[in-house]
Amino acid sequence: MRVGLSLPHYGFSLPGGSPISFEACAAWAERAEALGFDSVWVSDHFFYAFDRYGGDPAPIASLEPLSTLAGIARRTRRVRLGTLVLAAPFRPPALLARAAATLDALSGGRLELGVGAGWFEREFEAFGYRFGTVGERFARLEACLEVLAALGGAEPGRAVRLEGPTPLRDARLLPAPVQRPLPVWVGGKGGPRLLRLAARLAGGWNVVWRVAPHAYAARLADVAAACAEVGRDPATFRRSVGLYALIGEDERDARALYDLARASMPGGALDAEDHEVWCADTLSGGPERVLERVAAFEALGVEELIVAPWVLPFAVPMPELVERVAEVVIGRR
Description:
The protein is α/β, with parallel strands linked by helices.
């Protein structure tokens, strides 16, 4: 099983609350590559905020994902570069396909393109995008995936025509991406509609950041049904899971680590949650428990675990926790 790292790229991401910068994010990508991680990932927000946890609603800085990964592509050689995930409404689909093709070429064929419907209403409003209903955002996601599938899977230089909400008239990706088709992931909780979109138009499905193996196993029946509906072999449907990860030297150390992390959570969002509840759907605990969790997801066909080594995504306030993921999970596979 492959292991990816969610890179720090927010104003809260670094130790001591240091301001975020491209250099800091890229340095972590280089470190992840040196430690043996298989991939690095960034998300897509104009800004973040803690009011969703009951904390401060003030906007928090965020690096733009595609330009960030373009820079990281030139600073790394092996790790795959992923978006977890791009909000489909933020970019015209054909422009996104062209940017993805260029980024794939820049990286020598290392792009993993995750796309979702978007969920943070405040940033839509702040930057002039219509948020709309869930159904409307799913329609925009579907239109985006149709264009990505048509252009990203075409033979190099072949003209593509596509009817629909985003029509194409003899469109070509020139130069073409290295990978064909471009690997596209659909990110989301995995309701039937989203899985049908993924089965029809994407390489696979990703879900984050708290997922228990038994709950994931139950969702796989929907994956099978979605694939059957479009005549797709479920074995070709790629699966990845993102998990918060607080790995201790042993179980006692893991409990102490969780207490420390819980106390730092904005808005006291984890105050009522004990360590065992936290461990039930994250990659947390001592090494033995963690490796059992890895094995459980691998048995369910998950090809990659993407770790967020804290109680917030895309944050590394304790760098030693990244080292521990490398030691426990990567070092023993």
